[in-house]
Design a protein that fits this description.
Largest sheet: 5 strands, antiparallel
Strand content: 15-25%
Oligomer: single chain
Helix content: 10-25%
Keywords: ATP-binding, Kinase, Nucleotide-binding, Serine/threonine-protein kinase, Transferase
GO molecular function: ATP binding; protein serine/threonine kinase activity; protein tyrosine kinase activity
InterPro entries: Kinase-like_dom_sf (IPR011009), MAPK (IPR050117), Prot_kinase_dom (IPR000719), Protein_kinase_ATP_BS (IPR017441), Tyr_kinase_AS (IPR008266), Tyr_kinase_cat_dom (IPR020635)
Family: Belongs to the protein kinase superfamily. CMGC Ser/Thr protein kinase family. MAP kinase subfamily.
Mean pLDDT: 74
CATH architecture of the domain at 259-467: Orthogonal Bundle
Pfam families: Pkinase
Radius of gyration: 23 Å
Strand order of the largest sheet: 13-14-15-17-16
CATH class of the domain at 259-467: Mainly Alpha
Length: about 500
């Protein structure tokens, strides 16, 4: 990695509870030195050092340490995640079918031979859409083997992943391991035989059934191919369909992450202020890059923030992104309601990068409370929850509303004074609280910007302006003209696949 990261040591807790399967940190059980150097392999139970949130500020002695981010695995199973609690692990080890529902439903069946079949469904906002939110970590050993059948002269391999047809290039070698599923399709992990890199392959089935979803898929592909940043998920490949004329499924290949922030916050994993500081810094660092490309993400939420055991954070799911100058927005598709800025709730016709900053504030607050800040049941309830915390806006704070009807509506709502953040967030550090107050401002013109947030004292130990790059060129959405049909989108996605896999065979 080009940017700084400091290492802290993994604390294993009580040695009496230690065993070789208890802690499974990441996919390999390795320690990795700073700056992404070669891993030093280690075996459990002797816990190696891991890269964890940076502490203390540079050039100062390491006075304290963060609690480690660790995953509790299913023993002898290819899945591990913060959402797999010890109770689940114990029940699986005892060969009993188990069900857990913490943002993700996992059911496991075990035969006498130790084989497992597992089914996963997104839930509680964990994943969905065109992104890779909801991906789980992969454990060691005992991986479920799914056999494949070679097709198209051996250039592709076809798998049956729990009833789902999964056909990928032969360079992605077995075993194919399912790690997530949502409304969009299924995600499997595999290894690229050419690069030896472990990747996440997402299948979007029937991708061209409707124009909205097809555009969303194309938009994310083009955006991620344009971007190159440590804190934005990397697009590795678009698997070229076997035939140009007749394909309905799209396979997108990403770098593999261990989990997402949604599942982490729903787990019993302890998070310190140092974790929150590090996650927020990385989110803002990535968002600065995105905004500099003239792009609004518009769907920032915990399930779209992907994590690994080293506490690296990457922004995913750009399917709803738009240019900062675009005015023709589909309001019903913008931002999950709980993370939606007031100007969106009030149908403001013009909005800015400030909508993403509101979402960051909601995420920061949720990291501390482990619960959504504004879990509104509908638009009216959402506005009420917001004003109960940040206070009802006065007339000077409604200048962003062009509609007289909208201003009258806001004035007609019950009036609430601003709540003292210290009372609402008693465990939050003063620095984090001040930053949160500057993010959760009703008037978008008075809301802190991403550049200002990176300069905030709360992030002083991490902020380094020369190590927070911007995008070299703005992104253009020119391909999204109104007359674009599903067949047009299919052709554009085919062309995108050729950029990764030239010399097509028709």
């Amino acid at each position: 990695m080009a940017w700084k990261r400091r290492a802290l040591h993994l604390s294993t807790g009580s040695s009496s509870n230690s065993n070789s399967n208890q802690l499974l940190f990441g996919r390999h059980g390795t320690s990795i030195s700073a700056r992404g150097k070669a891993p030093a392999f280690s075996t459990f139970p002797n816990a190696p050092p891991y890269l964890l949130p940076p502490w203390p500020p540079r050039n100062q002695p390491r006075a304290r340490r963060c609690q480690p981010l660790f995953f509790l695995p299913c023993p002898r199973c290819c899945f591990s995640s913060p959402s797999l609690l010890p109770e689940l692990a114990r029940s699986l080890a005892a060969a009993r079918p188990a069900v857990v529902s913490i943002g993700l439903l996992v059911t496991a069946d075990r035969t006498r031979g130790g084989d497992r079949s597992m089914r996963m469904e997104g839930g509680g906002g964990g994943g969905g859409g065109a992104g890779v939110g909801g991906c789980l970590g992969l454990g060691q050993g005992g991986e479920a083997q799914i056999k494949g059948t070679h097709t198209h002269g051996g250039r592709y391999v076809q798998y049956n992943v729990y009833g789902n047809l999964f056909e990928v290039s032969a360079k992605y070698v077995p075993p194919i391991r399912p790690v997530g599923r949502g409304a969009f399709g299924i995600i499997c992990a595999a290894v690229n035989a050419q690069t030896r890199e472990e990747v996440a392959i997402k299948k979007i089935g029937n991708a061209f059934d409707n124009q909205i979803d097809a555009k969303r898929t194309l938009r994310e592909i083009k955006l991620l191919r344009h971007m190159n940043h440590d804190n934005v998920i990397s697009l590795k490949d678009i698997i070229r369909p076997p035939r140009r004329e007749n394909f309905n499924d799209v396979y997108i290949v990403y770098e593999l992450m261990d989990t997402d922030l949604h599942h982490l916050l729903r787990s019993n994993q302890p998070l310190t202020d140092d974790h929150c500081q590090y996650f927020v810094y990385q989110l803002l660092r990535g968002l600065k890059y995105v905004h500099s490309a003239n792009v609004l993400h518009r769907d920032l939420r915990p399930s779209n923030l992907l994590l690994n055991a080293k506490c690296d954070l990457k922004i995913g799911d750009f399917g709803l992104a738009r240019t900062t100058t675009e005015t023709d927005f589909m309001m019903e598709y913008v931002v999950t309601r709980w993370y939606r800025a007031p100007e969106l709730l009030l149908n403001c016709s013009e909005y800015t990068q400030a909508i993403d900053m509101w979402s960051v504030g909601c995420i920061l607050g949720e990291m501390v409370t482990r619960e959504p800040l504004f879990p509104g049941k509908d638009y009216v309830h959402q506005l009420r929850l917001i004003t109960e915390l940040v206070g009802s806006p006065d007339d000077t704070s409604l200048g962003f509303l062009r509609s007289d009807n909208a201003r009258r509506y806001v004035r007609s709502l019950p009036q609430y004074p601003k709540q003292h953040f210290g009372a609402r967030f008693p465990t939050m550090s003063s620095g984090a609280m001040d930053l949160l107050e500057r993010m959760l401002v009703f008037d978008p013109s008075k809301r802190i910007t991403v550049d200002e947030a990176l300069c905030h004292p709360y992030l002083a130990s991490l902020h380094e302006i020369n190590d927070e790059p911007v995008c070299p060129a703005p992104f253009s959405f020119d391909f999204e003209h109104p007359s674009l049909t599903e067949e047009d989108i299919k052709e554009l996605i085919w062309r995108e696949s050729l950029k990764f896999n030239p010399d097509p065979i028709h």
